[in-house]
Each structure stands twice: as C-alpha cells, then as structure tokens.
Amino acid sequence: MTSLHQPAEGEPIDEAEALRRLADTTDPSGQYYAAWWLGKQRSTHPEAIVLLRAALRLRCERQHGSGVDENAVARNAIRALGKLGSAAQGALNDLVAIVDDPDYGLREASARALGELKALEAVEPLLSRLRSGPETAGRLEPGLPQLAEPCEAMLEALGDIGCASTPVLSVLKLYVEHPWPVVSSAACRALLQLTQDDRWGHRLLALLQHPQLQVRRAVLMDLGATGWQPAAGPIAATLAENSLKLVALKGLVEASAPGSADREMLDLMDSLL
Prior knowledge:
Blueprint: H1 15-23, H2 28-40, H3 46-61, H4 68-83, H5 92-98, H6 104-116, H7 123-130, H8 151-161, H9 166-174, H10 181-195, H11 198-207, H12 213-226, H13 232-237, H14 242-255, H15 263-272
Helix pairs in contact: 1-2, 2-4, 3-4, 4-6, 5-6, 6-8, 8-10, 9-10, 10-11, 10-12, 11-12, 12-14, 14-15
C-alpha cells in the first residue's frame, strides 16, 4: 500500500503542481496531499473542482471500501470541497450521495463539508440517517469506539445549514440527552444556532464544566460556532488551553451579528494572548 505520509507544510508546491498530483491516479499519496493543499489554499482554479470530483468517482468505481488509500484521498477531496464555497456548488450531488456511503469516515467528512457549504439539499438525507435516534443511529457499535452514525458531525451540519424546520428541530432534540457528551453538545449547538433559545446555551455552559478535557475542548468549539455572546466569559474561564479558548472566542465574534461583539469580548481575547 502506498504511504499516505503528508509532506511538510512548507514543501514548495504551487497550484499547478497540486493539480498535477491530483490528476495522477497512480500516486494516492500525491493525490492525498494535493487535495489537502487545494482545500487549504481555497483554490478557485476551474480544474480543482473537476479533479476533486473525479477523485470521489474513482473511489466509487473501484467498489466501496476497496482500498485505504482511495478512501483517504476521497476524504481529503470531500474536506477540500467543503472549503471551496460557491465554487463547489456543482459537487453538491456528489457530497449528498456520500451521506449514504457504507464508509463511516466518508459519511462524517461529507456531513461536515455539507454543513460548511450550507447545503439545503442535504437536510433530508441527514435527517434520514438520524431519525432512528440514540437507540439506533446513536448506539455504540459493538467492538468499535464509534457510534453507528457520525452523529456529532451530522448534528453540527444541520445547525450550520440553518434550516429551522419542525422536522429538523425534532430530530435534534432526540440527541440532547445522548450519553456521549460531545453528541449532546453538538445537538445543543445546532438548536442554539437555529432557535437562539438561551436554554440550549445554558446546557452548553453546563457541559463546559465536564471533568474530561476532550469534552471541554469540543464544547468550546461548539459555543464558538453559535455566536451566543453570554458564553464569552465562561469560555475565557474554561480549564483548557488558551489557544483553544482564543479560537472559540474568535469564532464567537465571527458568528455574531456584525457590530454586536462588545468591548468585553475583545478584552477577553487580549487577556488570553
């Protein structure tokens, strides 16, 4: 199997080289890095979308789960498409189809990408994977450290897409009491984004006190995505790395209505530097 070691970020490469590597289907390692590079650089080259979609098709043509290399390339292609904004609109059908892919990692990546793209087309497919609730979609897979569905990513995607319909809110509420704190946090994050109801923010603040650092880190990012300004002080006081608290506060500012970030929030950011 070809190694998927990613070259150092400082390795000299330009857009033309990234496109050349992505087109070379004999070198999955080169494709893997090229897809990552194009997404990170937010490439607007017309061939970028064409080649990223081709990487997804190639993986499907060679049968689901046929190779670790191809799945890894496909995941990076999906992540890149999620970062390309309006340029990736032509790939929405490809990404929506992957919501039903047998591969867990691809379903997770597609959910996150569709959330980034705010793809309304993805709402019903995501709901169909989640409607069975914590007992089925949210159950722990026997012998694996994962749930039957990538619930955290799918719930966050529904919040990011922004469709506050009754069916969406009903499904999100199924997961508020999920035994995995990160899943509960994702559900509360989405509900807060869609309803602006403070009770979901207060649930997130309670989760911010969780004894496990990994949970607190996840909740920090969820709060940052909501734009809910009462979270600023608790974020700054969380027992977690200052770098993550800064990222969360920056997200809070960016997700807030223009001009609504007050001086206190900016002072909190300064205090963490």
